[in-house]
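My hope is that you will study the protein record below before we discuss the fold together.
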Amino acid sequence: MSDLVAQAGDANWESEVLQSPELVMVDFWAVWCGPCQMVAPVVEELAKEYEGKLKVMKLNTDEAPEVAGRYQIMSIPTILFFKNGEPVEKLVGARPKPQFKQIIDALLSQHSATA
């Protein structure tokens, strides 16, 4: 995992995700999940491309089941986008990078319009 992608968990969820002033993308994953491993490099690339505009976090659902349960994460990978402490978009399953970029760009343009 790169320096641009931080680990989210029970201990830092509130401070890193819910209290963040910026748009936050959280990748809910697990070590044993094949599609999660396929999405991981895309998540890293997005973190680099959107550095300074988007905070990217990964949450291991096996290590933080309480947080995963709170957001009803039933299958992984699930990508949740948070704005002002609220989930604003949810992607379930492995997706191609252009789909992620389309959603991120739309959310960022909304975010800058309301900021």
Q: What stands out?
A: The CA atoms of residues 75 and 107 lie 23 Å apart. The helical segments are 13-18, 34-49, 65-70, 97-114. The chain has one domain: 5-114.
